[in-house]
Amino acid sequence: MHPNEQLIRDFYAAFARRDAAAMARCYHPDIFFSDPAFPSLRGPEATAMWAMLTARGKDLEIILVEAAGSDDGGSARWDAIYTFSQTGRKVHNKISAMFAFKDGKIVRHIDRFGFWTWSKQALGAPGLLLGWFGPFKGAVRKKADKSLRAYMQQHAGEIPLPG
Predict the structure, then answer these.
(1) SS3 letters for the chain?
(2) What is the pTM of this model?
(3) Which residues of 64-96 are buried (b: 16+ CB within 10 A; e: fewer)?
(4) Structural domains in the chain?
(5) pLDDT, tens digit (0-9, with 9 covering 90-100), for 76-109
């Protein structure tokens, strides 16, 4: 197995254990992370997001469906199954990930999933009716960012640093 594939597998194994510190060790200090809810996180913002999600995800289940890695990059397909805390609704999110590596660590991590599909599950009727609408997506992103900033402030000094 290529070392970069093993690194991806280690990252998701740590995620499944809700071990944000082990996840952070898989990331390069210059990590850039993006997904539909958090479109541009750098360095400690990315590891803080994972720390927040693993701490709050009481019934979080992570399933790594497949992973691949080479010198040129990597990819994964993974599922997240959890109860969305704001609504109490069950979510089964299917995610595709792309990775780039530097110095034996993940330096770029891009997750993609259907925002409308996610919003229907997580938010119910509002997500069904508005999940495709740009301003609605922007409002969800703004709320997610506000939640992350509050978590980072509340847990300053506890958030694992990348690298």
Answers:
(1) CCHHHHHHHHHHHHHHCCCHHHHHHHEEEEEEEECCCCCCEECHHHHHHHHHHHHHCCCCEEEEEEEEECCCCEEEEEEEEEEECCCCEEEEEEEEEEEEEECCEEEEEEEECCHHHHHHHHHCHHHHHHCCCHHHHHHHHHHHHHHHHHHHHHCCCCCCCCC
(2) 0.93
(3) beebebeeeebbbebebebebeeeeeebebbbe
(4) 3-154 (3.10.450.50)
(5) 999 999 998 889 999 999 999 999 999 999 999 9
What's the rounded Cα separation, in Å, for the pair 109 and 116? Answer: 21
pLDDT in tens, 13-42: 999 999 999 999 999 999 999 999 999 999
Question: Is residue 83 within 8 Å of residue 103, measured between CB atoms?
Answer: no
